[in-house]
């Protein structure tokens, strides 16, 4: 029994670290602009397919696709921002529809370009098993975990240390005050969207190396990411990381202790409980009630 | 996309040439398939097998040439019903149905109302044949898949089996049937059903490893799940002797895409690979499929190849007898009795094919060896045999 | 060129409504008069079901100020409720359909805690509910038949000589039910309740001060929206004759109505209905004939263009156009 639970927690942490990568991009754009980018999951998916494209055409390790993914996904994210920024009326609602539409376009473009087959890495190196004491994982998962930690550290450092990073934080916490201090909120949001694109690129490549992808699964990433954002509360990177790990571990433990058919149910129930009973999320600072 | 257009172009050309040469009578059949959404893969493979069947039939036949119109039903019942109505409206003499009992149910009822024969290879629910529709036919059913796995279990006599099953309709149905029948035979069975959204199977495999202590894992699921499950098993290395799956697993395509995961894995199959020469129809199918789509035949393509071939033959017989416009096609379908790549096909009163029974094939270094039942086997099983 | 785009949220005056109603009725009668085939009527039936959910969604969005991403929850509950009541308890279909609406209201009561949440949080909380309901429908297989689905659903009956189960009968029924729902929506909007709700949408704090119980009103709107959605779910179940959890609680029922409402103009009564019909026919007839696989990409482009160029929807666009002409003439 104890072995089962330990392995479940371990698996949950590894999966959660990638949820965190996916969620951070959504959270940073949401934090600054107060809009949910419903195409975020599809951006992640596009990066995953970029990894597939590079791996099958060059035989290189999927992680070699990151530069190309950065260009593609980062660029698309920037274009998406420019479109959202044109919206003047009912920005919250209309941006939802706009990003949803872009999500549909990306999903179908992937379907047209790559067909609907199941794709995942074929690199034996990434697929091989690794054991740490009594715990088992795939190399790809451990690498993804490390990449996730690195990127989150980098993001944290960027938000704390750089001028733009501080601007992003300022706009996130109080847009008007930030403007008074001479920060251009629109340009800051632009930067935040590009940062979200960068995070999505890496997240997609990491996902491709440890899981399977199909054109239809993009929106599921968006929903997972939003759940994590809510668990975390707005404006906390360690919060997003811990929220994601919590979601991953909850899912894995549900499979172990109850039934695997209930995994999604557990995630959703956790989400609702936090929404209703912890108005600031687990680690956030701001309430979300109207 | 480009590849697709080339394919349809070449098909169109082939048909145009054929028509011009023989001035044959051209007939239209319709099909609705899930070409987008999570079942798009199944729908596209079905469509490919169907296109090849039409092409192969047109090569042989001088008198009747067939054209096929395919509509995307998006896995939505209402859209499938609309598709059937549009196809019949466009002059289709019969309809080939897509994937999933929830789609096939309403769509075949609509087709029945319009008096058109409806055939499918993608719906296994017993409720469908219990409706007493006169124009409904299917070549495969849950019982056949169940028999395939049961035969294997009876031959290998594992003491404990773990079934890992998706909660989607067809896999859940099969898992339920297997759980019951294996338990009756005294095998210890544990079922782990999982939500289709799940991607990390390690916690399930760990339960199989530490708690079930099973000899055999049976996967009742789809391709993406197979990949996830076998990967997780490869990491945790449970002490099982064999990994078994059902549809769309023992195919050359799975091996060429996931060579590290497939060796020694067993799945339902009908033909060994490379296809043996003693079956010219199958051989021609495999060659043509490779030529057009640049890949090896796979499970669903073969199913739809068979259903389409049977349908086209029945239509030409009815046309020959002059009963096609007079509602004679259902009777002509019931006269079908032939050996196919699937084995014998003959329809009973409900439109079901009681002879549907599958062999089990084992991936063996890029080849697929039929290992069960004994009568159809062309090699003996590697047991214990695992991908790692 | 007027510098100010008129607010579409104000109820339009009676004469223009009458014109709209007239146009709508003529349009609705047209397919029958023209003797449309089963195929086309089938498409319209699906579009009208979408229109009904779309209307319910817009009611919640416009009057309640709440955006929902999970109307599939009510749709699914309604469809299963009516199917089970009529098939297992033998209730007449015409009774089980409104009862299904009531049961959907019951489901909406579970969501009352979510009413305190703002904007996107409410939207995703409802989405979570719809996911939970879907999984419950899969797991409670003794009741729902589980993933294998539920098939023996009675058809719509024949009323006053009109076979509602036939294509034209279902079409007439849906036109009537959609029209009734539109009427209810318009009445609620014009009533005091509507005024109070619009005040809440403008400033919740201010209205609380003058003594309007916003939570209660919002709960009423959620319940009404759930009822309408549940009824359409029930009708759909009887028309299609087959249910399974993945279909009944599919995200499609949450997403397409939103698109339709926004596309048509969600602050108007007719916008969601027109939007649903246009979107559905565009996707199924036009887009599908251009790109067989992946035709939704065209829907995506259409939507994106719409949001960027005409964010108030088609009706908003029409109104702006009319207003512009009037300004030019004056």
UniProtKB/TrEMBL annotation, chain A:
Signal sequence extent: none
Origin superkingdom: Bacteria
Membrane topology term: Multi-pass membrane protein
Short name of one Pfam family: BPD_transp_2
Keyword presence, Membrane: yes
Protein family (similarity comment): Belongs to the binding-protein-dependent transport system permease family. LivHM subfamily.
The protein, known as: Branched-chain amino acid transport system permease protein
UniProtKB/TrEMBL annotation, chain B:
UniProt-listed Pfam families: Peripla_BP_6
Transmembrane stretches, start-end: none
Keyword rRNA-binding: no
Protein name, UniProt field: Branched-chain amino acid transport system substrate-binding protein
Keywords: Amino-acid transport, Signal, Transport
All residue ranges annotated as the Leucine-binding protein domain in the record: 29-352
Family in the record: Belongs to the leucine-binding protein family.
Cleavable signal peptide: 1-24
UniProtKB/TrEMBL annotation, chain C:
Record organism: Pseudochelatococcus lubricantis
Membrane topology designation: Multi-pass membrane protein
Main subcellular location of this protein, as a coarse class: membrane
Family annotation (Pfam families): BPD_transp_2
Keywords from the named record: Cell membrane, Membrane, Transmembrane, Transmembrane helix
Annotated compartments: Cell membrane
Protein name (database record): Branched-chain amino acid transport system permease protein
TM helices/strands, residue ranges: 12-33, 39-60, 67-87, 93-112, 169-188, 219-241, 247-266, 273-291, 297-318
């Amino acid at each position: 029994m104890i072995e089962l639970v330990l392995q479940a927690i371990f698996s949950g942490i590894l999966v959660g670290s990638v949820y965190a990568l996916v969620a951070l991009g959504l959270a940073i754009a949401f934090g600054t602009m107060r809009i949910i980018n419903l195409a975020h999951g599809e951006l992640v998916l596009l990066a995953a397919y970029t990894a597939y494209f590079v791996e099958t055409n060059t035989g290189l390790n999927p992680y070699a696709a990151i530069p190309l993914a950065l260009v593609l996904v980062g660029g698309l994210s920037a274009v998406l921002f420019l479109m959202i920024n044109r919206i003047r009326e009912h920005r919250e609602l209309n941006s939802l529809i706009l990003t949803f539409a872009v999500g549909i376009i990306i999903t179908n473009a992937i379907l047209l370009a790559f067909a609907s087959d199941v794709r995942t890495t074929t690199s034996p190196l990434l697929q091989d098993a690794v054991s740490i004491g009594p715990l088992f994982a795939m190399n790809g998962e451990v690498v993804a975990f490390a990449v996730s930690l690195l990127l989150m550290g980098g993001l944290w450092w960027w938000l704390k240390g750089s001028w733009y990073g501080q601007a992003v934080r300022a706009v996130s916490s109080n847009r008007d005050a930030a403007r008074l201090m001479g920060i251009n909120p629109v340009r800051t949001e632009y930067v935040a969207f590009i940062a979200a694109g960068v995070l999505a690129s890496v997240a997609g490549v990491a996902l491709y190396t440890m899981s399977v992808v199909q054109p239809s699964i993009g929106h599921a990433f968006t929903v997972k990411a939003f759940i994590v954002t809510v668990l975390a509360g707005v404006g906390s990177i360690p919060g997003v990381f811990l929220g994601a790990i919590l979601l991953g571990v909850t899912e894995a433990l549900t499979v172990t202790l109850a039934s695997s058919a209930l995994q999604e149910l557990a995630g959703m129930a956790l989400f609702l409980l936090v929404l209703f009973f912890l108005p600031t999320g687990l680690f956030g600072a701001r309430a979300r009630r109207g | 996309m480009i590849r697709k257009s080339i394919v349809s172009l070449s098909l169109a050309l082939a048909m145009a040439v054929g028509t011009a040469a023989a001035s044959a009578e051209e007939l239209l059949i319709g099909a609705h398939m899930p070409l987008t959404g999570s079942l798009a893969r199944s729908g596209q493979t079905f469509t490919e097998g169907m296109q090849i069947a039409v092409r192969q039939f047109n090569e042989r036949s001088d008198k009747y040439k067939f054209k096929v119109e395919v509509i995307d039903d998006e896995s939505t019942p209402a859209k499938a019903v609309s598709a059937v109505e549009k196809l019949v409206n466009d002059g289709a003499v019969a309809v080939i149905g897509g994937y999933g009992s929830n789609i096939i149910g309403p769509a075949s009822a609509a087709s029945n109302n319009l008096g058109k024969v409806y055939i499918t290879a993608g719906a296994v629910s017993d409720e469908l044949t219990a409706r007493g529709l006169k124009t409904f036919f299917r070549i495969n059913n849950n019982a056949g898949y169940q028999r395939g796995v049961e035969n294997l279990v009876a031959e290998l006599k594992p003491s404990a089996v773990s079934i890992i099953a998706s909660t989607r309709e067809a896999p859940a149905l099969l898992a339920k049937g297997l759980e019951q029948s294996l338990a009756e035979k005294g095998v210890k069975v544990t079922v782990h059903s999982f939500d289709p959204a799940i991607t990390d199977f390690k916690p399930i495999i760990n339960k199989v490893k530490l708690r079930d202590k099973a000899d055999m894992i049976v996967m009742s699921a789809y391709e993406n799940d197979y990949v996830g499950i076998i990967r997780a098993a490869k990491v945790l290395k449970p002490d099982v002797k064999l990994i078994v799956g059902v549809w769309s697993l023992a195919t050359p395509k799975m091996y060429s895409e996931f060579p590290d995961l497939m060796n020694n894995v067993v799945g339902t199959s009908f033909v060994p690979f490379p296809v043996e020469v003693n079956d010219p129809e199958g051989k021609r199918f495999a060659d043509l499929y490779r030529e057009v789509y640049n890949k090896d035949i796979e499970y669903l393509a073969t199913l739809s190849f068979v259903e389409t071939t049977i349908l086209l033959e029945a239509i030409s017989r009815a046309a020959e007898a002059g009963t096609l416009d007079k509602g004679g096609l259902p009777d002509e379908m019931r006269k079908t009795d032939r050996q196919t790549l699937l084995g014998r096909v003959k329809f009973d009163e409900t439109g079901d094919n009681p002879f549907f029974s599958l062999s089990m094939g084992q991936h063996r270094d890029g080849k697929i060896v039929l290992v069960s039942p004994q009568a159809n086997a062309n090699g003996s099983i590697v047991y214990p045999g695992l991908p790692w | 060129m007027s510098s100010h785009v008129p607010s579409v949220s104000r109820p339009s005056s009676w004469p223009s409504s009458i014109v709209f109603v007239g146009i709508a009725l003529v349009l609705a009668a047209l397919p029958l008069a023209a003797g449309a085939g089963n195929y086309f009527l089938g498409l319209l039936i699906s579009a009208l079901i979408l229109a009904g959910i779309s209307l319910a969604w817009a009611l919640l969005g416009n009057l309640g100020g709440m955006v929902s991403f999970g109307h599939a929850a009510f749709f699914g509950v309604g469809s299963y409720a009516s199917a089970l009541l009529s098939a297992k308890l033998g209730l007449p279909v015409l009774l089980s359909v409104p009862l299904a609406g009531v049961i959907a209201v019951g489901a909406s009561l579970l969501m009352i805690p979510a009413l305190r949440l703002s904007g996107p949080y409410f939207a995703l909380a409802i989405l979570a509910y719809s996911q939970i309901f879907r999984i419950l429908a899969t797991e409670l297989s003794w009741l729902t038949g589980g993933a294998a689905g539920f098939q023996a659903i009675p058809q719509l009956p024949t009323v006053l000589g009109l076979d509602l189960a036939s294509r034209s009968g279902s079409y007439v029924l849906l036109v009537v039910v959609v029209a009734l729902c539109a009427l209810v929506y318009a009445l609620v909007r014009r009533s005091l309740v509507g005024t109070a709700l619009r005040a809440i949408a403008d400033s919740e704090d201010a209205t609380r001060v003058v003594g309007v119980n916003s939570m209660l009103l919002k709960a009423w709107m959620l319940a009404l929206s759930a009822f309408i959605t549940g009824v359409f779910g029930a009708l759909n179940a009887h028309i299609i004759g087959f249910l399974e959890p993945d279909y009944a609680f599919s995200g499609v029922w949450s997403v397409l109505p939103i698109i339709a409402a926004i596309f048509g103009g969600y602050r108007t009564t007719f916008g969601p209905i027109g939007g649903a019909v246009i979107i559905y026919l565009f996707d199924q007839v036009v887009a599908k004939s251009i790109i067989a696989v992946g035709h939704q990409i065209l829907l995506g482009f259409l939507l994106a263009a719409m949001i960027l160029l005409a964010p108030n929807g088609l009706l908003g666009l029409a109104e702006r156009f009319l207003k512009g002409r009037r300004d030019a003439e004056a």
